[in-house]
Amino acid sequence: MNNLLIWPVALPLLTALLALLWPRRSNWIGVAGTGLPLLAVLLVSWQVAASGPLELALGGWAPGLGIALRADGLSVLMLLMSALVTMAVAVYASVYFAHAERRGEFWVLWLLLITALHALFLSGDLFNLYVTLELLGLTAVVLACLGGSRESLQAALRYLVLGLLGSLTFLIGVALIYAGYGTLDMAALGDAIVAGPTAWVALSLMTGGLLIKSALFPLHFWLPPAHANAPAPVSAVLSALVVKAALYLILRLWLELFDGVVTQAAAVIVGVLGAIAVVWGSWAALQAERLKLMAAYSTVAQLGYLFMFMPLLAALPEGAGRELALGALVLLALTHGFAKSAFFLAAGIIMQRAGHDRIAELGGTARSLPVTAFTIALAGVALIGLPPSGSFLAKWQMLSTLFVTGQWVWLPVIAVGTLLAGAYIFRLLGHAFAPGEGVGPSLSVGREEIPAVLLALIATLLLGFWASAVWELVPISAYAGGGA
Amino acid sequence: MMTMSVWLPVGILLSSFIPGVLIFFQPEERHRLRTLLNLLGALVKLLLVGVLIWGVFHEQVFETRWFLAPGLEFVLHADALSVLFVSLSTLLWLVTTIYAIGYLEQTPHRSRFFGFFSLCVTATVGLALAGNLFTFVVFYELLTLATYPLIAHKGSPEALRGARIYLRYTLFGGLLLMIGAVWLHTLTGGVEFVQGGVLDQFAELDRDLLRWIFLLLILGLGVKAALVPLHGWLPQAMVAPAPVSALLHAVAVVKAGAFGIVRVIYDVYGVEFAAELGVLSLLGAVAAITIIYGSVKALSQDHLKKRLAYSTVSQVSYIVLGAAILGPLATIGGLVHLVHQGVMKITLFFAAGNYAEALGIHRVSEMDGVGRRMPGTSLAFSIGALGMIGIPPVAGFISKWYLGLGAVEAGAAVWVLPVLIASSLLNAAYFLPILYRAWFKSPATPWPADKTAGCARELPDPLLWPPVTTAALALLIGLFAAAPYSPLEWAELIAGREYRQ
Amino acid sequence: MNGLILLLPPLVPILMALFAHRLERRWWLFSAALPALFIGLLAEEGSGITIPWVLLGMHFALDSTGRLFLLFGALIWMLAALFIPSRDLAPGATGYIKQTFLLALAGNGLLILAADMLTFYVGFALMGLSAYGLVWGRSQRARRAARVYLVFTLVGELALFAALLFLMVSGGSLLFEDLTAEPMPAIALALLLLGFGIKVALPGLHLWLPRAYTLAPMYGVAVLSGPMMKAGLLGWLRFLPFGTPLEPAWGNGLLLLGVAGVVLGMLIGVVQRQPRAVLAYSSIAKMGLFSALIGFSLNHPQLAGGLLPVIVLLALHHLLVKPMLFMGLALWQRNHPGFWLLPALLLLALSLAAFPLTGGGAAKSALSTALGGQLAGLLLLSGIAGVALMGRFLWLLKGRVISVQQDPIPAPGWLLLLPVAVWTPFSWQAFIFEWKTLLPLVAGTALFFLGLVCRRWLDSLRLAMRHKGQHLNLGAVQIHADMPDASSTLRQIWLPLKQAAQPLRFDPASNASLALRDPAVWWLLLMLALLGTLSLSLFI
Hints:
Number of helices of chain A: 19
Number of helices of chain C: 22
Structural class of chain A: mainly alpha
Strand order of the largest sheet of chain C: 1-2
Helix content of chain C: 55-70%
Shape of chain C: globular
Largest sheet of chain C: 2 strands, antiparallel
Distance between the termini of chain A: 24 Å
Number of strands of chain C: 2
Order of helices and strands of chain C: HHHEEHHHHHHHHHHHHHHHHHHH
Distance between the termini of chain C: 52 Å
Number of strands of chain A: 2
Radius of gyration of chain C: 22 Å
Order of helices and strands of chain A: HHEEHHHHHHHHHHHHHHHHH
Radius of gyration of chain A: 21 Å
Oligomer: heterotrimer
Largest sheet of chain A: 2 strands, antiparallel
């Protein structure tokens, strides 16, 4: 049964090969190659939910030597998000790239990206993590410059350099760990690592590298141009998934591997940076003149929230309270993933129809593209953190944790961030609802509009009303004693 | 029976939610189907609410629970207070829907409008049925979301501006409410609405902390209830189409705030405990200031809907005032005004909409002689206005009577009675000139935009009958206040259950 | 007899008001008061009915006082209905005379038959507010008078409302019969005096009256001066705690105010130039007497039992005579008044001046008997006032102004009611002639001539002013020289105040219809503020 774990990784890889060989049919192959892993992921999730964490040692070698795949609650949740988002985006992309010349390249890279993502979420040792991280970064860069414009190339180049820098730093940290403890298997390391200079230096290096990749303030500057200039489907996955991958790793490292090593001070530093990111990102989003740029800045802000959980998590003892906060974090990340991808897809639709995405000229959108406008509104609800979205629940629990731990200082940040998010979302909606002829003639609902609205609905309704699943899955851990 | 008690609250929500969602997907031109859906939903809801009233009266428990997250439950629960608000919303929704169908005929974006309209009512009913503070916050925010497109419906720069201001206020208020709710939630581990309040059971909690939380909650709710100085959005929001204004002022938004304050005082803190904390006197002072301030501002408005808006600011605080005075009589006054103000104010806004629709009248100074031209509408308006002043036997008098009794009973007459009397006089000062113009003056200039020239009736039926119906209702619930199942009787029932000792 | 018929006097006019736009003949309005007449004549005293589900429970009962008020009130209402000009009954008439007339009638019936305070209040409010339409006239000044009337009425109504709240809380019941169970709270007493004091035009609260009486249409003045004004008195009779000892300050205060009313009405009345204004001040003087008597009864519980029925009789007499005088004046101002009219008016005036062998004289002698020789000075004063004012009234009839509108008024109706009015309360045994009753006559005549001289002097003064400042806008002064009351001085204070307050004032468009600009209203507010501080100081 554990062999299941191979499929989410293997299926996209195989179809990528297929797409490479048969570029003319790549649209179909691409969608199928995204859909099949989704099925696999669903199976895996069902298994994990039913019977606890899964582990698979590839090639039969014991963990530590070979490639170990592990699935626990956290990774399953990330996998689910990744599979669902990529599925929706793939459907959208099949329209978006229907007749593009470079669609063959796109689909190969796309499937590789999925492979890397799934592998990353399933990897059980640090070296594999590095490899998948690198693969993820590279495919993301190439995808980001598919648009071919000058700006996108420039942004992608910067993205590449920083991504490489980040993964290199991560690699050094991994090397230090190997030197210090003689193993890279995370389950083993979780018990082995003790507070000391090696651990501190390794943790700082690895975290630093990941922070670059997850674009925490002040290391965020590469993100807005890269995300804003990529083709819409790519922006969607970049913002929704790729940055989350780095975040996922940070969570793994901080909470499970270096549990005893992380000091409150370090967590507070990260939290402060997150807080600044929230305010600054929201403010920049409010100032942004272009839709996609706004979405990208909003990503910076939303990631800030996630990092603000760090000091809260660090302050809580292991147990129900911490799982509550961790669940809230994951829920926020998931909601953001779905909402932001929906948002980018909608932005892509508008951009295709209108030929631009200047917010001030979007009048009439609500009339000619009602479903898309609705999608933006729904996604916006999730981004602000209003009910019934998952982020509302997450923020509720975050505030609750705030009061429990007595860390009042974050309260104004959350408040300001929420209000600013409301401001930029409704500024956009105000323009979209205004009369005008900014967007082309009225058209019926297209195939490309449906994935976006589904994603938005997942973020606002599904994750709102069925969020309890998150808290049920999160405690199922493959590490630190499993299912603490 | 068990299943019904679980499903009834959900059914009441869905009876407007499902039509709302379906309407979104209807093409603009299918107005018959849309009307059918709307009315069907409204009637089904009315039916279900009827069952609910019967059940709650006989002390049946209607409750739906849905586990959302650790410590967070989505609870729909029907008690007497919810029933009061639910029946008000349901009834007025039906009337307003009919009115809106007539009002918006031949205008664009009707599907969108009616969709959000139904969602707005869903949120309001959800607020009423919310069984704990968390659920209340959820619907409170949903209400903000559902009303924003309604206010911005016309899409004109003023409409967008009004909607933006509305949003600024309500998002801010919602945030404060949420912070307060989370805080309380963290301290107590879940705040269910229980008649008589729950907080007095947590003797170990710091009193000052509870006072601060109360302040947060009231600030958050006060935005929607338009307590001074948080009322700024309400006069701006009058740019909305008349049915929206009517619903906004009578049922949905403003009432949601007032209802929330009532909930917090009675079912969270418990009125005796709140009085013990000393927070009620502050709230009472704010309510008093709001009552006077709103009336004084209304006096200087020439724009009819703005005058009505400031009147709402003033009148809704009667409810808050009733809640802030300790004693069952004041409670009855406040609660019954929740219904009475709704019925009367919706009449006034319907009439204002009719004036604008038929004759292009937007200002008080243009209303000379309108009474003879539109007698049905003007009669309805007059009844509503007299009720607002508190002239017997219109419903407003009953509220004022009980508020006054409560104030005297609680020994608060020194400041409450002057406020009530001054407010009545001010109400007279800004409503009676309107009636005077309408009935006793003759039109000096032609109407701004006469659209009904040559028609036999003053207005088409869907526009004329809603205000006439609600005006008759306002008269009847005042005149037969002591009859069984009247709002007054419900308010007495609730007050009896709240002061259980 | 079934108590349900007690509902007819209020209910029938209300139902008729709903269809009033169809009623184009004044006989409809006439017949609206028939149920009241019927009840007043035929219904059993002591019958009552309770309707628990209307308002907060309504209680009706008929007692002897109520029966008399109902009966004689009905007569006046019926007669007044006949005085409504036919153009006000036509379908396109401006104003809402029919509706407001019917509603005021209903309110009047309601309050008379009410057995609980709330029902009384509802009737009082319905009557007072509807009467706005009866005071309302076509001229600018009449509208203004109506506006001032409305403000005063609203204030009175609210004062009554507040009083009811205190009574309800202290007594726990709204029924009149439970009222004496508890000592009345001082604040409620004060509010009652204020609320009804406005209706009966206590000095200081009377400013609405002269203008309303001079400017309102005749049918309006008729019902206003008769049944409606007496409703205020009835309110006192119903609410005030006569049987229980009270702080003497209350009774004395009311007594003093009453005396002031007599004096004020008399002095200002005799210098008026319009017959209607004289009648108006005569009302103030008369109601001053009533107030003083009520105040006296409050302080003398042992006398109250005998005194109150006499007060009722006196009130009934005035209820009939004053409207008859007003309506007679209307007849007099027609083109061809009958030769019989002047003696008839003289008879009425004599009756009002309490001349012996008239109903007024009889009532007065009954009163002095009931008083047992006390308050003789007041009675004398009141007698002088009556004579002087009636003299002035008759004197002014000579300068007959023919009114513009001529309507065929059914004079026979008036004539029919004349003997009733003159000889009410039909207490023949009190028809005694004593020389001392002529004392007021002499003094009153003297005062009347003094008034004539004063009037001349005032006129010359005014002429001089006119000559001096041709360009000055003396309009305000002229109006108020007719009715020299506090308002002209107040106006002088008010104008600069208004200018100072201009920046924060109102939108000019909506301003025009606000009554706040009227000095009388400001005077009222000033009074209220004084009373408010007084009661606050009592509280603290």
